[in-house]
């Protein structure tokens, strides 16, 4: 994310509403503590730093996920970053069960360009984004295709967490690319053949039977 926001790392900001104290530790977690004398007063995690929410080339929020269990799911929190005179947790709500919304004010986001995504990317990823823009402009991809490319860019940059399905797909592509040319395939085959010959020699030295491709045993 934006490098200038990293100075918030290692710090925590609290907000008290009614009998609850909320604490937001940027790039770490969000916690809630019930300040009562009840024997079973709640104290737990509302979310752990997970990923950014990005919209229109802008970091619009921080998602803190995988908090304490709540009914059939985990608690999660979205932190909205807004311009303010000082760093402070200004507002907390629970728009839906076990999903919380925090508003964090900071002067670090007051500059118009302070939350732009593009400048935080590497040159290679910026080029990839530029190419996607050109493809969209030339009507060679749809809006949906463009958004998919951007999502891949953000995942590669570590701004978004890749889903398990995407990870499997990436590994599959990686394996496929290893044999994308006949030359590479032939080279791999030759190396494997040499290794098999060495193994046959080793087996023969120890008088071990070798099973061929047909499934027959050969006494070596």
TrEMBL record:
Query: What Gene3D superfamilies has UniProt attached to this entry?
Result: Mannose-6-phosphate receptor binding domain (2.70.130.10)
PROSITE patterns to which the protein is assigned, alphabetical: DMAP1_BIND, MRH
The question of whether Transport is a record keyword is answered with: no
Give the UniProt entry's GO cellular component terms.
extracellular region; Golgi apparatus
Annotated DMAP1-binding domain ranges read: 117-219
> The organism sits in which domain of life?
Eukaryota
Using the record's annotation, list all stretches that form the MRH domain.
Answer: 10-112
Q: Where in the cell is it found?
A: Golgi apparatus; Secreted
Q: Which SUPFAM superfamilies match?
A: Mannose 6-phosphate receptor domain
- Which keywords describe this protein according to UniProt? Disulfide bond, Glycoprotein, Golgi apparatus, Secreted, Signal, Transferase
One GO MF term attached to the UniProt entry? transferase activity
Keyword Glycoprotein listed? The answer is: yes
Entry-linked InterPro entries: DMAP1-bd, Gtb1-like, Man6P_isomerase_rcpt-bd_dom_sf, MRH_dom, OS9-like_dom
* One Pfam family this sequence matches: PRKCSH
Record note on quaternary structure: Homodimer; disulfide-linked. Hexamer of two alpha (GNPTAB), two beta (GNPTAB) and two gamma (GNPTG) subunits; disulfide-linked. The alpha and/or the beta subunits of the enzyme constitute the catalytic subunits.
Q: What does this protein do?
A: Non-catalytic subunit of the N-acetylglucosamine-1-phosphotransferase complex, an enzyme that catalyzes the formation of mannose 6-phosphate (M6P) markers on high mannose type oligosaccharides in the Golgi apparatus. Binds and presents the high mannose glycans of the acceptor to the catalytic alpha and beta subunits (GNPTAB). Enhances the rate of N-acetylglucosamine-1-phosphate transfer to the oligosaccharides of acid hydrolase acceptors.
Q: In its UniProt entry, what is this protein called?
A: N-acetylglucosamine-1-phosphotransferase subunit gamma
**Lineage, uppermost ranks:** Eukaryota, Metazoa, Chordata, Craniata, Vertebrata
Please state the gene responsible for encoding this protein: Gnptg
